[in-house]
Design goal:
Helix content is 30%, strand content 36%. It is an alpha+beta fold. It folds into 2 domains: 128 residues, Ribosomal Protein S5, domain 2 (2-Layer Sandwich), CATH 3.30.230.30; 64 residues, Alpha-Beta Plaits. Helix 2 runs parallel beside helix 3. 31% of the residues are buried.
Length: 206
């Protein structure tokens, strides 16, 4: 019986690449992402950065189950932009990635084969520049505890390579954390032994 994976491949930082064909300019941007909100944020930023571009085509994939993805042609002929972008993401075997290709029209129609080649090539080049890393698959939890437990909580977080996603410090401390699944059982046991701490599982929107 095959065991479930404990890591996934993604990119560590954003990259960009440019491709030109018969006057049209294609600029690819790659982004490491975690949520749909990340995607909306990056798309909005690029639309502000390139307000005169005729197309902002993109594709993304999130998660490890293979079911969370999208390819968008943004007005280009069907299948000529988003699908080639997604194909390059998948050929690299990475996830939690967004690629946006901004196009400035150069006055000459490229035809569907020309568009496919342009979007595929510029995406490939941008991903080739990316540093691909192995990341832990995590489960997300919310911790609520008094300030007196902060040192003990941080000791557990550091010892078990837990990702501190967000912290809110008001009357109590509230942490959103990602626990690597290989550390899940022992870390949860340690948190549950802190009697004034409440731990609850949270779902990250994807």
């Amino acid at each position: 019986m095959q065991s479930s994976p404990t890591t996934y491949r993604s990119i560590s930082q954003s990259t960009t690449s440019e491709f030109k064909d018969r006057g049209s300019k294609f600029i690819a941007y790659t982004f490491p992402i975690q949520t749909l909100e990340d995607i909306k944020k990056e798309l909005n930023t690029l639309k502000e950065l390139h307000p005169k571009a005729v197309h902002h085509c993109y594709a993304w994939r999130i998660g490890i189950d293979g079911n969370s993805f999208r390819a968008n042609d943004d007005g280009e002929p069907s299948g000529s932009a988003g699908k080639p972008i997604l194909g390059q993401i998948d050929s690299t075997q990475i996830t939690n990635v967004l690629v946006v290709v901004v196009r400035y029209f150069g006055g000459t129609l490229l035809g569907v084969p020309g568009l496919i080649n342009a979007y595929k090539t510029v995406t490939h080049d941008a991903l080739q520049q990316s540093l691909i890393i192995e990341k832990n698959i995590e489960m997300n939890f919310k911790l609520q505890f008094p300030y007196t437990l902060m040192n003990e909580v941080m000791r557990i977080i550091k010892m078990h390579h837990i990702n501190l996603i967000k912290s809110e410090l008001t009357l109590f401390c509230e942490y959103h954390i990602g626990i690597p699944i290989v550390e899940l059982e022992i870390a949860n046991t340690k948190f549950e032994q802190l009697h004034e701490l409440e731990i609850s599982k949270i779902e990250i929107t994807k």
